[in-house]
């Protein structure tokens, strides 16, 4: 038996080795707890491991089964090794274990799938119960989120267990909730206004606009910005503010028209609570029909249109109105130089039923009436009425009733009464003539709609809309003449009535379905019954002789009888995430338009994608196809009530557009944002009047007066904006080109020519600054190169044998041959606010066109004098007298010089 003896030397050796081992373990443990700075970008697992081994001295051990789902990007300061590993492998199927100088990586064991439940509800203002559109909901542990839809509803599906939710909305305090999610849960959130953010003016929200949204070319314009943007006579205007966005033009100087990315005014789908508005103009286009006090939110889409919208080529303006305060009564009274406005809202049944009503009326007719001649009376006014009732049946069911009526009215009345003597005897030859002329012209919209919101379950939301929409123009004239001589009289009375318009009945159902947080599915269908009345006129003639009726004739003249059309549409769109950086919105809009026993079908695919490079930078791309089935006939550069809406026919096909866009977006600190978008739009079946033909109030045979062709529009848009702070605003620049081309032998001999509102450069600068709670100032400056116009540049003439007058002809080189001069304008407005016992008083002093730039509203040519000589024609041998071509004088007309204004507003 062998014995082993442990000598003192052996004991000392073992103790030394054990001490060294302990020291190494302690050293590695200290290394693991040491803090270091580490930065790596877009690295694979192998690259990350190698870089960390070089930085720490640790070695990694792992097998082929260990993989990561996405590349690793880290930029940390003074973090421990464990903290770095936790950040790198967060949301990855990788676990780690530190043993000495080694780090063992293993594939995470899959946990059994947990059950999932849905949290849903409405987000409202705590004080008024007004729904908040686009509020953000984020679950911090799962890093999943959503936003409220246009009715304030949200739905979010999450795994069972502890859940931490954050509800946020710009201008409101963030609300946080911790719950143990064990079943489907309804949570209605009432958010509190953040008084500390009084100095903040919000320029954009992020539901469908900005870096994180999938859509591009979408801009949300808050009412605070609209109310602070100076305009003509102090009238804040929705459409005028939209004109200051990149890619949008005003058309005629000072008008409220929209010309978006090379499109016409009829190519904009303008919605009031989901119902189309056909005429959005007051005062021949210089003001819009939207009263700012009635509006809650405005969203402009000009690029990647969501699939739920259809029927126009160029843009969608989605206007949503206030629902009404369910808690208390309050309102606004405003008095300006042009018009006065009043708005009232409050509960009918507290916490269940509310109302919101607003009205506006101009009073040029009342001011001018005392100064008009006794026998010559001319008047003009416009008004708007918005009313809304909001009733809450339960947390699942709500009803909204909307009403809008707006009208422009122009009237003219002239009387003359005179007596003269036709012979030598004044008792026999006295003749009395009495004449009276009356003319009235009115036009406007009436919209009535009912909307029902119903939550089928926590994941499925439905909105049903039934609406009636009417636009109509009426002209009435009456001419009366009476002649009295020698006790006998003769009378003539001529009456006429002319009207045109369009009436729609519509039914629509929209669904929001959120199966999981990474998918937001919208689908729906709609039906519209159109009744077009392009022109209907009647006239009546009465003649009396000696008080006896001699003639009474009624004439019915119908240039175009009523045209009925049926429009059906359906859509589906899915906004989903593909990985952690890519988000895609894909969908399709299907439509059918039936008119004159002919049906047109259209399948319109829509797709947009956003790649999130990091938290501040995103890239986007989109493709959209749109179809349009109606046209607006007009021959004037400003909006006129005589413009007529007509549908496509068996001869005139629907217009179509294909738009391609790319862009990049940056969101920085302190509210700074920058975006750049480039687009190309290809249009088919666009309509232009033939050479020498125009439309002047008659739609008879309009198909023969126009040609169908193609158009294209391209450009690049830059926008720099600051969204929060005492000083906010934006600077935008647009470089664009738009043209049209028609078949050879038709318009312009088949050669491309610039579109009427083709403006190469457009710059807009908007600045708002809040000095304190009592004084704030807003200013806007715009510059745009001139559009185009077709103007005769030269005149020629000929005197043929046997004639005693010269035949003159205008010479025009090509369609839209004249480039108008540039336009530029500065508007300034200052608000003086003061809190009173019962509310807030505001005086607004503004100046439109502050430095009196003489921008052209209209241009025309005159001066056709010339000189000539006799020229022998080589073909027929006759001698002609011809004018030598002479340049015509181009004259511009400016109707909007510097205009100061003052407005008083009281909120109570």
Automatic annotation (TrEMBL):
<keyword id="KW-0813">Transport</keyword>
<keyword id="KW-1134">Transmembrane beta strand</keyword>
<dbReference type="Pfam" id="PF00593">
    <property type="entry name" value="TonB_dep_Rec_b-barrel"/>
</dbReference>
<dbReference type="GO" id="GO:0009279">
    <property type="term" value="C:cell outer membrane"/>
</dbReference>
<keyword id="KW-0998">Cell outer membrane</keyword>
<keyword id="KW-0408">Iron</keyword>
<dbReference type="GO" id="GO:0015344">
    <property type="term" value="F:siderophore uptake transmembrane transporter activity"/>
</dbReference>
<dbReference type="Pfam" id="PF07715">
    <property type="entry name" value="Plug"/>
</dbReference>
<dbReference type="Pfam" id="PF07660">
    <property type="entry name" value="STN"/>
</dbReference>
<keyword id="KW-0732">Signal</keyword>
<keyword id="KW-0675">Receptor</keyword>
<comment type="similarity">
    <text>Belongs to the TonB-dependent receptor family.</text>
</comment>
<feature type="domain" description="Secretin/TonB short N-terminal">
    <location>
        <begin position="58"/>
        <end position="108"/>
    </location>
</feature>
<keyword id="KW-0798">TonB box</keyword>
<dbReference type="InterPro" id="IPR037066">
    <property type="entry name" value="Plug_dom_sf"/>
</dbReference>
<dbReference type="InterPro" id="IPR011662">
    <property type="entry name" value="Secretin/TonB_short_N"/>
</dbReference>
<dbReference type="InterPro" id="IPR008969">
    <property type="entry name" value="CarboxyPept-like_regulatory"/>
</dbReference>
<dbReference type="InterPro" id="IPR012910">
    <property type="entry name" value="Plug_dom"/>
</dbReference>
<keyword id="KW-0410">Iron transport</keyword>
<dbReference type="InterPro" id="IPR000531">
    <property type="entry name" value="Beta-barrel_TonB"/>
</dbReference>
<protein>
    <submittedName>
        <fullName>TonB-dependent receptor</fullName>
    </submittedName>
</protein>
<keyword id="KW-0406">Ion transport</keyword>
<dbReference type="InterPro" id="IPR039426">
    <property type="entry name" value="TonB-dep_rcpt-like"/>
</dbReference>
<keyword id="KW-0812">Transmembrane</keyword>
<dbReference type="GO" id="GO:0044718">
    <property type="term" value="P:siderophore transmembrane transport"/>
</dbReference>
<dbReference type="InterPro" id="IPR036942">
    <property type="entry name" value="Beta-barrel_TonB_sf"/>
</dbReference>
<keyword id="KW-0472">Membrane</keyword>
<dbReference type="Pfam" id="PF13715">
    <property type="entry name" value="CarbopepD_reg_2"/>
</dbReference>
């Amino acid at each position: 038996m062998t014995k082993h003896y442990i000598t003192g030397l052996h004991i000392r050796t073992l103790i030394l080795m054990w001490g060294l081992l302990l020291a190494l373990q302690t050293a590695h443990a200290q290394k693991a707890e040491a803090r270091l700075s580490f930065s790596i970008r877009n690295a694979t697992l192998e690259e990350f491991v190698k870089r960390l081994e070089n930085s720490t001295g640790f070695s990694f051990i792992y097998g082929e089964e260990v993989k990561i789902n996405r590349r690793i990007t880290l930029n940390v300061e003074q973090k421990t090794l464990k903290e770095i590993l936790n950040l790198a492998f967060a949301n990855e199927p990788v676990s780690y274990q530190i043993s000495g100088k080694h780090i063992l990586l293993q594939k995470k064991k899959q946990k059994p799938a947990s059950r999932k439940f849905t949290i849903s509800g409405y987000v409202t203002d705590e004080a008024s119960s007004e729904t908040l559109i686009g509020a953000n909901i984020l679950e911090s542990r799962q890093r999943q989120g959503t936003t409220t839809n246009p009715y304030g509803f949200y739905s979010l599906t999450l795994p069972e267990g502890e859940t931490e939710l954050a509800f946020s909305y710009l201008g409101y305090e963030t609300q946080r909730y911790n719950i143990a999610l064990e079943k489907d849960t309804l949570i209605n959130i009432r958010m509190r206004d953040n008084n500390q953010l009084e100095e903040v003016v919000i320029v954009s929200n992020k539901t469908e606009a900005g870096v994180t949204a999938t859509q591009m070319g979408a801009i949300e314009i808050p009412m605070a910005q609209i109310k602070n943007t100076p305009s003509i006579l102090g009238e804040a205007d929705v459409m005028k503010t939209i004109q200051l966005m990149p890619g949008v033009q005003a058309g005629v100087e000072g008008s409220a028209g929209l010309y978006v990315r090379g499109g016409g005014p009829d190519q904009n789908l303008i919605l009031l609570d989901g119902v189309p508005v056909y005429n959005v103009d007051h005062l021949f286009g210089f003001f819009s029909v939207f009263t700012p006090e009635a509006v809650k939110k405005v969203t402009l889409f000009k690029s990647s249109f969501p699939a739920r919208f259809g029927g126009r080529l160029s843009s969608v303006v989605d206007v949503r109105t206030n629902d009404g305060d369910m808690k208390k009564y309050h309102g606004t009274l405003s008095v300006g130089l042009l018009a006065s406005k009043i708005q009232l809202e409050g509960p009918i049944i507290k916490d269940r039923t509310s109302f919101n009503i607003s009205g506006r009326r101009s009073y040029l007719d009342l001011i001018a009436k005392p100064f008009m001649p006794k026998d010559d009376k001319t008047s003009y006014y416009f008004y708007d009425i918005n009313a809304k009732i909001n009733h809450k049946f339960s947390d699942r069911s709500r009803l909204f009733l909307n009403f809008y009526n707006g009208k422009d009215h122009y009237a003219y009345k002239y009387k003359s009464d005179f007596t003269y003597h036709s012979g030598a005897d004044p008792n026999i030859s006295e003749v009395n003539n009495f004449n009276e002329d009356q003319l009235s012209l009115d036009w406007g919209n009436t919209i009535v709609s009912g909307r029902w919101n119903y939550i089928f379950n926590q994941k499925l939301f439905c909105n049903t809309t039934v609406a009636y929409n009417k636009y109509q123009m009426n002209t009435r004239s009456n001419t009366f003449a009476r002649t009295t001589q020698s006790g006998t009289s003769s009378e003539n009375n001529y009456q006429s009535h002319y009207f045109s318009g369009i009436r729609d009945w519509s039914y629509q159902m929209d669904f929001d379905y959120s199966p999981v947080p990474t998918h937001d599915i919208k689908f729906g269908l709609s039906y519209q019954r159109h009744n077009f009345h392009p022109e209907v006129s009647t006239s009546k003639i009465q003649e009396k002789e000696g008080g006896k009726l001699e003639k009474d004739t009624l004439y019915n003249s119908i240039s175009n009888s009523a045209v009925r059309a049926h429009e059906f549409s359906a859509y589906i769109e899915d906004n989903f995430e593909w990985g952690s950086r890519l988000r895609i919105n894909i969908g399709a809009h299907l439509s059918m338009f039936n008119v004159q026993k002919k049906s047109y079908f259209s399948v319109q695919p829509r797709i947009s994608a956003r790649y999130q490079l990091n938290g501040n930078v995103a890239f986007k791309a989109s493709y959209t196809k749109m179809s349009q089935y109606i046209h607006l006939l007009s021959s004037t550069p400003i909006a006129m009530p005589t413009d007529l809406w007509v549908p496509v026919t068996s001869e005139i096909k629907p217009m179509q557009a294909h738009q391609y866009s790319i862009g990049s977006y940056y969101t920085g600190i302190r509210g700074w944002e920058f975006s750049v978008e480039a687009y190309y739009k290809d249009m088919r079946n666009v309509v232009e009047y033939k050479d020498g033909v125009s439309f002047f109030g008659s739609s008879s045979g309009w198909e023969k007066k126009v040609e169908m062709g193609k158009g294209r529009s391209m450009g690049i848009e830059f926008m720099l904006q600051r969204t929060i702070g005492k000083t906010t605003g934006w600077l935008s620049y647009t470089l664009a080109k738009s043209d049209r081309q028609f078949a050879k032998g038709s318009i312009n001999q088949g050669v491309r020519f610039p579109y009427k509102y083709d403006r190469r450069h457009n710059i807009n600068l908007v600045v708002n600054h809040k000095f304190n709670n009592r004084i704030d100032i807003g200013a806007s400056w715009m510059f745009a190169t001139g559009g185009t116009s077709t103007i005769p540049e030269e005149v020629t003439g000929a005197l043929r044998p046997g004639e005693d007058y010269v035949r003159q002809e205008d010479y025009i080189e090509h369609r839209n041959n004249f480039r108008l001069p540039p336009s530029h304008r500065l508007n300034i407005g200052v608000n003086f606010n003061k809190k009173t016992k019962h509310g807030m008083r505001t005086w607004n002093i503004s100046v439109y066109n502050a430095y009196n730039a003489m921008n052209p509203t209209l241009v025309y040519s005159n001066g056709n004098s010339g000189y000539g000589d006799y020229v022998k024609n080589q073909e027929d041998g006759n001698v002609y007298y011809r004018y030598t071509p002479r340049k015509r004088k181009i004259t511009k007309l400016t109707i909007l010089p510097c205009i100061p204004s003052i407005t008083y507003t009281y909120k109570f």
